Amino acid sequence: MPVAAPIVQVRELTKVFRQGEINVTALHRINLEIAAGEFLTLMGPSGSGKSTLLHIIAGIDRPTSGDCIVQERNIGALNESELADWRNQNVGFVFQTFNLIPVLSAFENVELPLLLTQLSARDRRRQVTTALELVGLSDRMKHLPRQLSGGQEQRVAIARALVTDPQLIVADEPTGNLDSHSAADVLDILRRLSRDARKTVIMVTHDPKAAAYGTRSIHLEKGELTN
Amino acid sequence: MLPLFKYHLRSIFIRWRSTVATILGLALVIAVFVLVQSLAVGIEKASANSGDPRNLLITRQGALAETTSVITREQFNIIRYLPGLAQDNAGQPLASADVLLIINLPRREATGNANVMLRGVAPAGRALRPQVTLVEGRWFEPGRREAVASRRLAGRFANLQVGQKFKTGGVELTVVGLFDAARSAFDSELWIDADEARSAFDRPDYSSVLVRPENEAAAARIKAALEAERRLKVKAVREVDYYKEQTRTAGPIRWLGNGLAVVMSIGAMFAAMNTLYASVGARTREIGTLRVLGFRRRSILLGFLLEGGLLAGFGGALGCVFALPMHGYSTGTLGWETFSEIVFDFQITPILAAQAVAFAIVVGLLGSFLPALRAARLPVIASLKSV
User: Fold this and answer.
1) Of B343, B340, B332, which Cα lies nearest the Cα of B118?
2) Does B349 touch chain A (CB under 8 A)?
């Protein structure tokens, strides 16, 4: 059950993809509330619509119908540029494949979202350093992604997600490419962010062990919530 | 400054093989562009170096060049005694009546013949052209069939070294000296005494008169007086303006250079386009990630245009470097005004180099536009799923 006022409200949300001549319903009339500070895990088989739901909540996809209100803002009503700004200011992303920029160092990767803010270089440096310290990588700042292990890369990705201090952090199978030890480290960081920093974390996972780190788990099947 | 400058700069060199191929292709285009344009610049510079702003050149009305002008001895006598002319140390007016002739001479190493400008000059003519200095031998003496050649011309034609003789129009002339004309149009000339030229080549008249007025006011008065005197039918122009007008030979060279550059740049544009398309294809996920992080389509578009511009800028700079060894190299071509050989240098000036790099950047921007547009329009979700 939600423990505080909802930060995310999903109402009658439907997403239909067109594949050639066929309409495929990825999400069907989803209703969901996520409270601030919650660590919600989305589970379900492949093709169940969990990633699509995550993308819509994070503002990188749009619903076919229904509303997705995040921090009292209907993000479906924003245009492309507004949505880009909104994502930069309000959402941190963690991907399964880390998605670090290979030609940039760990520091520069984490700094990327801050380049779109008005912060001075000095303030950016301070925030990036803090974020990398939080994930235990302050000694790897100058390393390129290829010089890091998978677990370290994912921790850099988490630092990048944190650096703008967003209220919402979305993670799409963040441990899918990691060994169990690194996976545990990453999940522990996400849990701490939810528990200690009151960040709202929404994580898609197939792994019940990973889901156990969350405060609530919901299941999707064929585009519908099953619990 | 673009926030992603560092990212785009470094990305250029990730796929270094295609990057190097594109840069080299562009460098080649720019080297050709620079070389051909440097010929035009060389001709223009030679003409620009020729005149003295204090001198007036007087030719027949309607004549487009000295070679098509006729000034009679009577006209010369009227002109040389006009009030307001500066005088030399001997108290003589600084006025030189020149005879311009086009003669045909064999090139060195028996590579055929070409026309050369032969200038008959009065003693005052040398004083009026201080940029022409003797570098070997001595000046010709009036009354003797002697010539002094431009050192650069002597490097291109047979029998023009000091002590050698050459025949033209049944007249045999001995080369007694070589001069340097400070990279001016006179570097394309042979000089002999004016009266000797008239007598040897049976020319009763002169071609032009060069005078030095005392000052600006006197120049204006002399110009007005000559134009008002209808019987004379002559015109006076500043010597510098006359040579500025004589740069028409550079026109076709410029057009050739521009045409070649445009044709070759189409190929270079496709090379840049190909490189950028490959780059966008290989970086689809990176682009998707940047979009997710909040970078707008416009930023992505500008970033890839920047890459194309940088790539081309490197190519342009390299092209200038490739062309640079030719700077100062002396060559010759047919002058359209006189149909005689004009000698000049390849001149790669900073302005020409800047124009070449700017041209390369334009080629790069045009070539990268479509790939950049594609990058900016990539759907975010599909980009993130790209392998």
Assistant:
1) B340
2) no
The span from the CA of A27 to the CA of A225, in Å, is 9
- Which pLDDT tens digit goes with each residue over A73-124? 999 899 989 999 999 999 999 999 999 999 999 999 999 999 999 999 999 9
Mean pLDDT along residues A193-217: 94
B37 in Cβ contact with B352 (< 8 Å): yes
Nearest neighbour of A60 by CB, restricted to B4, B10, B381: B381
- The residue-averaged pLDDT of B97-118 equals 86
Tokens of B286: 């990176």
Domain match, B36 and B87 both: no
Q: Is A193 exposed, middle or buried (0-12, 13-18, 19+ CB in 10 A)?
A: buried
Q: Residue A78 is encoded by which pair of tokens?
A: 């924003």
Question: Which region, left, alpha or beta, applies to residue B229 given φ > 0 means left and ψ of -120 to 50 means alpha?
Answer: beta
Rounded CA-CA distance B58/B211 in Å is: 8
Torsion of CA B275, B276, B280, B282, to 10 degrees: 20
H or E segment and range at residue B106? strand B95-106
Instruction: List the single residue in B6, B289, B381 with the smallest CB-CB distance to A99.
Output: B289
For residue B338, pLDDT beyond 60: no
Q: Cβ contacts (< 8 Å) between A85 and chain B: which residues?
A: 294, 296
Residue at B226: amino acid letter? L
Q: Decide if A78 is inside a domain.
A: yes
Complex prediction ipTM: 0.92
Q: Answer whether residue A1 is part of any domain.
A: no
Q: What is the pLDDT of residues A159-176, one digit of tens each?
A: 999 999 999 999 999 998
Total domains present in chain B: 2
pLDDT over 70, % of chain B: 94
Is residue B55, in this structure, part of any structural domain at all? no
Say if B243 falls within a structural domain. no
Give Cα separations from B97 to A91, B118, B205, B322 (angstroms). 87, 14, 9, 45
- Using CB atoms, pick whichever of B7, B291, B294 lies closest to residue A104: B7
Residue A56: closest CA among chain B residues belongs to which residue? B381
Task: Residue B342: give the domain boundaries.
Answer: 5-48+248-385
In chain A, how many domains are there?
Answer: 1
Same domain flag for B98 and B197: yes
Contact check, Cβ <8 Å, B294/A101? no
Question: How far does the CA of residue B374 sit from the closest CA of chain A (Å)?
Answer: 16
A with B: how many residue pairs have Cβ under 8 Å apart? 62
Give pLDDT, residue B336. Answer: 57
Binary contact (A104, B381; C-beta < 8 A): no
Cβ pair B289:A102 closer than 8 A: no
- Rounded to an integer, what distance in angstroms lies between the CA atom of residue B226 and that of residue B228? 5
Quick check: A79 contacting B, CB < 8 Å? no
DSSP codes, B303-358: HHHHHHHHHHHHHHHHHHHHHGGGTT-EEEEE-TTTSSEEEEE----HHHHHHHHH
Query: Is the residue at A77 inside a domain?
Result: yes
- Could you read off the pLDDT of B272-306 as tens digits, one per residue? 888 888 888 888 999 999 999 999 999 999 999 99
Let me know if residue B179 belongs to a domain. yes
